[in-house]
Amino acid sequence: MRFLDTFFDGAVMAKYLPDLLSAIVTTLWLSVIIVIGGLALGLMLACLHSLGRWYLTLPIVAFADIGRALPPLVVILIFYFGLPGLGIRLSGPMVLILVLGGVLAAFAEEIFWAGLTAVSKGQWEAGRATGLSFAQTLFQIALPQAIRLGIPPLVNRALAITKMTALGSVIGVKEILAVSSSAQSFSGSATPLTMAALAYLAIFLPVVVLSRLLERRYAWAV
Amino acid sequence: MSAAPSPSAAAAHAEVHQRPVLEINQLEKCFGDTQVLTSIDLRVKPGELVFVIGPSGSGKSTMLRCCNRLEEPTSGSILLDGEHVTECHGRALDKMRLKIGMVFQGFHLYPHKTVLANVMLAQVKALKRSKPEAEARAKEMLEHVGLAHKASATPGELSGGQQQRVAIARALALDPKVMLFDEPTSALDPELVGSVLKVMKRLRDEGMTMVVVSHEMEFAREAADRVVFMDGGVVVESGTPDEIFGNPKSERLRAFLSRLSPGAA
Fold first, then answer.
1. Do A132 and B94 touch (CB under 8 A)?
2. What are its GO biological-process terms (chain A) (predicted)?
């Protein structure tokens, strides 16, 4: 009984459910924007990388390496508390989107790029020899293969980074963790944190399952 | 000009003053300090099948790959139907490549697309055919190589020989003026070689102009109008299959042929 009272207190649940639901909505839309923006930016950078011009490659590689090396929390704090000193004031959600989207883009660029380099030279030659342009060969032949190779690591990375929306709790974004941990302080019950854990599961577990199906569907024999 | 047609080669295709489909003039290719091709001259007449033989590293494949500029020639010129391939850039080069079909040793079919989509892709994207038109043409070409029933398969489901025939169909669907074959059967299990050679033989009989780099000497004897022997980046000897295999003039060719099939030549 003590276990249930601690983690599944019905009265506490009922009291904080509305707050938590709106927090779930916040986490969801932040995640969607971060994933779409991060993957799109990463894909674009990988395409530019494939042009093989040093003046593009150099900044792209620098961005990808720095983005992967820095702990996102550090960058979030710098953006939120440091930039106002320069007169740049960004809202909490905006900082979260910029930083986590950027970090995902850095990883995605690496993953797409690794996929592109794994596509054999012969595929490029077959495309070019049949009169396709560089861009056509990239988009019709190389990228589809690179993307399929990248799906498992991309899903993992996208999940890991969207879960970091919880870092928004340190800069006042009313996402799941912020709302539930303040509810925990007010109520003195751990139940809101249980609710947060369940909410995260409800959001991310289907994505994990979906990615498995996706992988299976896109597997092809070579 | 070492590769100029000899009288007997001309007899095989009687036209004397016909303009060559493919013309290679003084082609040179260096990789860094290493010269891999030295003053190559070759003229391929309409409907002719020129067979290129030589030890590995002799520059055969590089010569072939210079013809559609997968390798950039260091100097010299290449003409297709009188047009300079070597002076094309950007879109003009892409357009030129449409007229030069190429078949690779490793097939290089697109694994993420069906067989039909493999044959349609460049037709739609590069040749700007409508989809129905491209599909009809693709089906026709697959029929031609005996693989119409595999249209909806993916390349991974096909044997090597079948993949190579699809690759041939993919190139043919663009109505090229010349077909280049870069060791088309070298990656195949022996029992699958015949199916690919059969398709090539039929192409030849239909009048396709072809340049074939290969080690299939039997096929060369049977189907080639002219055999070119390369060694060390130069054309050492060229002539009819009978001349090359029956009466090799140079020591290098004799050595090559005896290494290849002891007791045959």
1. yes
2. amino acid transport
Disruptive mutation site among B103, B125, B127, B158 for chain A (greatest number of A CBs within 10 Å): B125
User: Which residues have C-beta within 8 Å of that of residue B152, sequence separation ≥ 6?
Assistant: B114, B115, B116
Query: Which tens digit of pLDDT belongs to each residue from A47-86?
Result: 999 999 999 999 999 999 999 999 999 999 999 999 999 9
Cβ–Cβ gap B122/A130 under 8 Å: yes
| Chain-chain contact of A133 with B91 (C-beta, under 8 angstroms) | yes
Helix (H, G, I), strand (E, B) or coil at B221: helix
Q: How far is residue B36's CA from residue B32's CA, in Å, rounded to a whole number?
A: 10
Distance between CA atoms of B99 and B96, rounded to whole angstroms? Answer: 6
B97 chain-A contacts, CB cut-off 8 A: 128-131
* Structure token digits, residue B221: 């004897």
Interface confidence, given as ipTM, is 0.87
pLDDT in tens, B82-118: 899 998 899 999 999 999 999 999 999 999 999 999 9
From the list A131, A144, A148, the residue facing B174 with the nearest CB is A131
